[in-house]
Amino acid sequence: MPAPANAHTADGPLADWLAGTRKIDLWGTLAWYDTILRYRRSMLGPLWITLSMGIMLLGMGPLYSGLFDVPLRQFYPHLALGIIFWHFLVASINDGCQVFIAAAAYLKQGRFSLSVFVWRSLAKQVILLAHHMVLYLPIAVWAGVGWSPRQLLFVPGFVVVLVNLHATAIILGILTARFRDVTQIVASAMQFLMFLTPVFWMPDRLPPRTKFILLNPLAQMLDVMRLPLLGGQPAPGTWWFLVGWTILTVTLAAMLFTAFRRRVVYWI
Amino acid sequence: MASIVLEGVTVAFPVYGANAASLKTTLAAAATGGRIGRETGVTVVEALRDVSLSLSAGDRLGIMGHNGAGKSTLLQTLAGVYEPARGRIVRQGTVASLINPTLGIERDATGYENIMILGLVQGLSRREIVRLTPEIMEFSGLGDYLAMPVRTYSTGMLMRLAFSIVTSFRADIVLMDEWLSVGDAEFRERGAVRLREMIRSTGILVLASHSPELIARECDSVIELSHGAIVARRGVPTGISGTGITAAASPATAELVLHIGAPKTGSSAVQRHFCTHADEIGREGVHYPVHPLDTNGISSGHVELTTLLDTARAAEAERRIRSHLAEARQAGRRLFLSSESFIRHARELSTVLPRHLSHVVCIVRHPLDALVSHYNQQVKRHLMKNRLQQVARAILSNRRSNPVLSGTALFEWLEWCGREQMTVVPYVEHGRAIDATATIRGLLGLPPGLGDDPPVNRSYTPAAVEFKRLVNSLPPERMLPFDEPLDVSLQTYSDARTLGWPVLEEILAADQVAALERHYRPDVDRIAETFGITIDRLPPPSREADVTDSSDSLALVWEHVSSDPRLAAALEAAVAAAHAVGNPGESLVALARIIGGSPPAVG
């Protein structure tokens, strides 16, 4: 099993997490196969993911621009990135619930660091995201979204989101392993949150007294990825909010990981 | 160095019912002070209770027990799956888990992709897997199927693939749940060889099984589990300093020491000494299973083991070795087995001996000295009819090669147990033959013996050899009835004389000796270099010191033999009968001439 020479079962939590993180070979390969095996017997292969997302964008763009009465050229990039990133966030969080349960076959036969499976799930979602981003390129060109150095702000934003999603997957993965109904709770919550998050609508259309709903972490994460790519700049408040939120999730994840990382295998 | 230590390990599983596992019940319990959520009082099953173990390199542990006794949980705990609720585990070394080799297989992935996945899961790097892949492909024998999704495989093919992958690399610790055997007869056979190779090169083996035979064959100690606790330990060495390979690196600590000869290096003396002093040696911590000795104190030691192997009764040979080992362990002793027949049975013995416990000891003689001695022995005990000149000619024409004589039989042993677990001592040191008994005692770490053993199985005098050679040409059924009394008589005759030892140069022509010397040179050099020893010939006996009574002739031999009237009569009758049948041959005519009463000429 993946026990390096001199593996002691008394490894500290941080060393344990790092050991799993370093196994890029393992989680990278597993994530890659997760992606390609799903489409093994189809003709288009992984392009199906892109295709279905493309159809969704094609249909929703004109529909929502009509509904909200916004020019499509102005609205389309916002909507496309909203759907693509939202899909990424939701899929990561829902998949995060299952990370350890899905890895039962591995966890039951040897000593693995749990972080391996969290990275595997996240890597899989990033691969999917890369597929979807291809669709955004023609829309951006058509809508005339130009290049600006501000778009580089996407990088720190994306890193913050990844850290958050990783911590969230640890929290939800451990909770779901112990309490199976967490999956349903999370799935319902995500559906509800979709309406509170400016995926389809423009946040500036919100009446001022309801602006507080933008204080949900998913809306902030969406903002921090989407705004820079559209040439805008997330408000300092967004950054502060996310820093605070990250500290919260990482702390909670660290606590659960420290306390229960060796118990999870008993529950699955 | 691989090691596993378990100290008072308890593994307890919480069993959550459908209700108990839900968040709602726990929240309700917290909110209501635990009254409503009574069902959250989780049942805990102790799968392992207070298990302590200490395994180091070379150990082979068997785990037995009924279904649900905790065997698999113990294996998983050793693999690092379960963190114990109480107790401590310290493990060092890489682990190969053969607990359930098909776990982790992706059914939609191809065979090739699964090699990568399962390899990674076993802890290999991508590069290592790429390197191992051709070998895995070949061994699995799946050919073009490897490019197909595993979903299309039969169960047998799936097992083949998984087996080929998990046995393709080496690990310090191998954990196995039952002996892996998959596929058809042909694959199963190849698989067994491969698995054995893997196990052989591993530091620690832990094997859970329901089969006592399997465990007896593969393991040297056994624990029995019942309801998660160890209820019995067997064969765990006690009172022995160090176990396993570290101990087997020296004959003074190895649990099993095998004295493999070579023939004519004093083995009979060693065997008689250990047989007659078995009790006293036992008290010193070495168990020597006694065996019969003949009237002259000669035996071939534990030759029964090789006889069993020669007659395809390996299971019985294995059972006897096990029972000798068990007896020794019970008494807290190490086991010593000796037979000069072992040296040419490396291949057969290796299938029944616990390699990781064994240390092999051999005394080697220069082939030219061994040749004379060997010839003497062949005539004496194995009915050799040819003259030494004929034997030498056969060797030089490469018609006969004897790995025991040349010493090359040692390399088969070397291949089996490795240089570390083998001690080879030259027969001649400082121009003198060593005292084999004292040497072996010394190697075993026993205090020096009393040195009061009378000589045993010494060579016949040249005249006695020639006499016996002539007798050997009698038809076996006629001579066998008096072969042993004749041997006793010839031995007494020879023992009464101190002619020193036979010298090749006095029997063969100088050019023949030189040719033999050249013939054996490469083998001698190779052995000397491999074992870091010098192999000298014994110098010829010095007349003054070593030769006191040199009277030796066929007439004197016959005079001594015929002092036993019954033996003389039997011999005369046999010779006469052989002559009566027909063409007696040169040897029998010569024999008849010596024993007198010239035979009737045959027409």
How does this model look, in words?
The complex is a heterodimer of chains A (268) and B (603). Residues 1-10 of chain A have low confidence and may be disordered. In chain A, 72% of the residues lie in helices and 0% in strands. Chain A has one domain (13-267). Chain A is mainly alpha-helical and 268 residues long. Chain A has helices spanning 13-22, 24-38, 47-68, 72-102, 104-107, 115-143, 154-178, 182-196, 217-229, 236-260, 264-267. Chain A is built from 11 helices and no strands. Chain B is of the alpha/beta class and 603 residues long. Chain B has a domain at 244-588: Rossmann fold (3-Layer(aba) Sandwich), CATH 3.40.50.300. Chain B has 27 helices and 16 strands. In chain B, the strands form 4 sheets. Chain B has a 6-stranded mixed beta sheet with strand order 5-6-7-3-8-9, with helices on both faces. A 5-stranded parallel beta sheet of chain B has the order 11-12-10-13-14, with helices on both faces. In chain B, strand 6 (173-177), helix 6 and strand 7 (204-208) form a beta-alpha-beta unit. In chain B, helix 26 (565-581) runs antiparallel to helix 27. The longest helix of chain B has 22 residues, at 510-531. The radius of gyration of chain B is 32 Å and the shape is elongated. Mean pLDDT of chain B is 82; it is low at 32-39, 236-245 and 598-603. The chains are: A mainly alpha (268), B alpha/beta (603). The A-B interface holds A 1-10, 25-26, 29-30, 33, 37, 40-41, 105-111, 175, 178-182, 185, 262-263, 265-267 and B 13-14, 16, 21-24, 26, 76, 79-83, 89-97, 99-100, 103-104, 106, 108-109, 113, 116-117, 120-123, 125-126, 149, 172.
